[in-house]
């Protein structure tokens, strides 16, 4: 499936163009060259003798490179062209483009080649919200090059364009006069550099450092070689796994505080930065494959942990950040993302990741290094998150202007509703948050007992977890229909819609065993399970919409944690059914699962229906096949050993996951598909 756009990326720098390689962005269109939340090119158009070119094909060379094969316009019916053009583009510290023109005629050719360039320097929030700029622009043509710039007080951004061949530069681009001999060729290399200079980087001027194709290739090769190897008779799984590893490499982002190490950026185009929740979930998914991502995520999020009370940023002591941005609107405090703390799940999930990381790797040094941060996160749950004083995590934004209204992972405006479609007031206590808090307390108790040697804290956390579990199973359980309510409202009444959040409760372990079978039945029942995956909101609920962002679509990441939760309660076949549906869907998306896709019933669609604005690649969707491999093979660290308990869909056949890293060194896992699944 293709949206007609070509995307290449490296960390938080990316280029989105059409299939000709051209960029013509409107204010609300997320195409162009972006870096550090600013668009550095909004226009990049190639013409020959004043004519636009037509695309013949596009080669997806690597996540950071693409090649475009073009010809001049030939009208409605193709006539053999006497010229062809190859544009090879690489991203990495801005981007570079090798432009080659081939003359296929027996006669010489004289051409005027023009690269039109322009930039609106839009902040990514301005693109999303169609906001006007407040600063001033400048353009400066130099010998053979062009500088495009934007200034607002101390905030400055520049795009520097140069070419390896002689060009005439003006404020709108570069022009080349080209003479081609019969069957001859001409080429030039265009370089686009991004420059940051502003008070948020201490007044320093930062020119993005260019990385060579060879070094990026070597880095990718090392990344893939260090990951476990998949051997499988079902080829789509092998290709999906490879795509996941490559996309995860593409999404690696090294913020200034990371010391050159990387964590996952959330997703292209809107979320190419550090998100607490997304980075944690992705690190959990990838832990058996690339544990270094988890270590960096824990250290970086710990370094930005909240230390005071700030209503504008929704900051509390101990709270883990939601989102970090570097653009103009953040610099001038028109948005609170420097960083913004408006999520309530990232903080308990931080403790969950720290414990799971230690269970896999045995790295107790990191657990000791981050003891203060983990204790502060645990304290936040009871001190600042319990807005109603009843032992549950609640949320209500303090920044009423630009803060997030819904601070759980389903953060769209209409995602939390009663069965009849009404929206509850604030504060809200969604069910999965209580599961995360329970899990954090259980895992925090283990760390306190085993690593920090604080038995008093361990005993207290275990008591609190047991009490939370007892109250939760009483207060959130919809007795008549046997599932857990989506949330509690301000009055303590159940927000009684049936949702996929029930699967996260299984993952957290907060569900009483006596209730687990009913929960699993709902998750695989016709109202929630589409055949491709579990819908975010059940069919039949008033706000159900199969193409609504959080109200009926299928989210691959959501399904991966639901499958993990089902395995935790020994529902092996049910987990295999979810894995089979999601992996079947991945095949239709060429191995790259999007952020979300339509929740239509599988028996009425031959393929999963695309969600129009889904991010792709997106970190926790990229991590989904990795976690599904873990759940299908039943991988679970127990002390110094890795337990393997496979339950695979029969369609997969033989599966081998080789060289799994962990505290045991490297180990192999094997399984054979024996679970018969039906859509």
Oligomer classification:
single chain
Query: Any idea how many domains?
Result: 2
Number of helices: 17
CATH architecture label of the largest domain? Alpha/alpha barrel
Overall pLDDT score: 95
Low-confidence stretches: 199-204
CATH topology name of the largest domain, in short, is Glycosyltransferase
Tell me the structural class: alpha+beta
Characterize the largest beta sheet: strand count, sense, and whether it forms a barrel.
14 strands, antiparallel
State the share of residues found in helices, binned by percent. 25-40%
Per DSSP, what share of the residues sits in E-state strands of 2 or more residues? Answer: 25-35%
Q: For the terminal residues, how far apart are their CA atoms? A: 21 Å
CATH domain class of the largest domain: Mainly Alpha
Total number of strands: 31
Question: What do you see in this structure?
Answer:
The strands form seven sheets. Strands 3, 6, 7, 8, 9, 10, 11, 12, 13, 14, 15, 16, 17 and 18 form a 14-stranded antiparallel β-sheet that branches. This protein has a four-stranded antiparallel β-sheet with strand order 1-2-4-5, with no helix packed on it. It starts with 5 loop residues before the first strand and ends with a strand. A hairpin with a 2-residue loop joins β1 and β2. The chain folds into two domains: 201 residues, Distorted Sandwich (Beta-galactosidase, Chain A, domain 5); 449 residues, Glycosyltransferase. About 1% of the residues have low confidence. It contains 17 helices and 31 strands. Helix content is 30%, strand content 25%. The radius of gyration is 26 Å and the shape is globular. The chain has 679 residues and is α+β, with helices and mostly antiparallel strands.
